[in-house]
Amino acid sequence: MSVRPLIGITSYLDEAAWGVWRQSAAVLPQTYLDAVSRAGGTPVLLPPQGGGVQRLVGALDGLLLAGGSDIDPARYGADPHPRTGRPHPARDAWEFELLAAALDRDLPVLGICRGMQLLNVALGGDLVQHLPDESHQTLPATYVRQGVVVRPESRLGEILGPSAQVSCYHHQAVGRIGSGLRATAWSADETVEALELPDRSFAVAVQWHPETDPDDPRLFDAFTAASCKEAAR
C-alpha cells in the first residue's frame, strides 16, 4: 500500500483515571487503533466537539464509527427503555453530523456496534432498545462468540464469504431498517448483524466487534483499501 490513508475514529468523552488524575477525557480502546494501523491506515481520534465537521471530513480518507454508549431514543422518536443507558447528547450530535458529511461526500464508512445503530437511526430507522434474552451480551466486558450468516450478494459477502464467527457485545439491535440500507448478516436468532448502503463506494456497518479479533483482519483490510483509493484521488 503506497499511501497510508487517514482514518478518523470517533471516540468516547467520559470520565477516566490515569496516574493521580480522574477527570473527563477523550478515550478509545487501543484495539481500534491497532486494527487500523495493522491494515495500513493512520488512525486519528475524533472526540465529541463543536464545529469544523466539513473541514475535518474533507481532510479524512475514511470514517470509522466506533462502539460505545446507547443512542438517545429521542433520536428515533421513542421513550427510553428501563435498561437503556443514559444519553450522551454531545457524542450523538457530533457523530450524526460527521456521518452526514461523510455520506454526502461518499467517504468510506465503517460502523461498529453503536456505529451500525447510528447509521440506521441517521437514515430513519429505529432500534430494539433491549434484547430480552441477552444472548449477545451475557457478562460485563465479555464478548459473546457466535456465528453469523452473510448475504452473498453484498459487499460484506465479498469480504467474509457466506458465514463468519464474530465477537458480539450489545444489548440493543436494529429494529426498522433505515432508508436505502440493506441487511447483510444475521445471527441464529435472526438479529440483524450487518447493514450496508449499496449506492455508496464503501458504507458497511456490523453489530459485532472485528477490532477485537486480530486473526481476522479482512473487514479492516477492505475498509482501509477503500480509504486508500480515496486518498489517491
Provide an overview of this structure.
The longest helix is centred in the middle third of the chain and has 17 residues, at 89-105. Helix 3 (89-105) links the parallel strand 5 (62-65) and strand 6. The protein has six helices and 13 strands. The chain is 27% helix and 27% strand. It has a single domain, classed as 3-Layer(aba) Sandwich (Rossmann fold).
Features:
233 residues, alpha/beta, Rossmann fold, nine-stranded mixed sheet, two-stranded antiparallel ribbon, 6 helices, 27% strand
CATH C-level label: Alpha Beta
Annotated CATH homologous superfamily: Class I glutamine amidotransferase (GATase) domain
- And the CATH topology? Rossmann fold
Provide the domain count: 1
- What's the average pLDDT? 95
**What fraction strand?**
25-35%
User: Which CATH architecture?
Assistant: 3-Layer(aba) Sandwich
Helix content: 25-40%
The helix count comes to 6
Biggest sheet overview? 9 strands, mixed
Radius of gyration from the alpha-carbon trace, in angstroms: 17 Å
Order of helices and strands: EEEHEHEHEHEEHEEEEEH
Kindly name the structural category.
alpha/beta
Overall number of strands: 13
Cα separation of the termini: 14 Å
Which stretches are poorly predicted, pLDDT < 50 over at least 5 residues? none
Q: Shape, please?
A: globular
Strand order of the largest sheet: 4-1-5-6-13-12-11-8-9
Oligomer: single chain
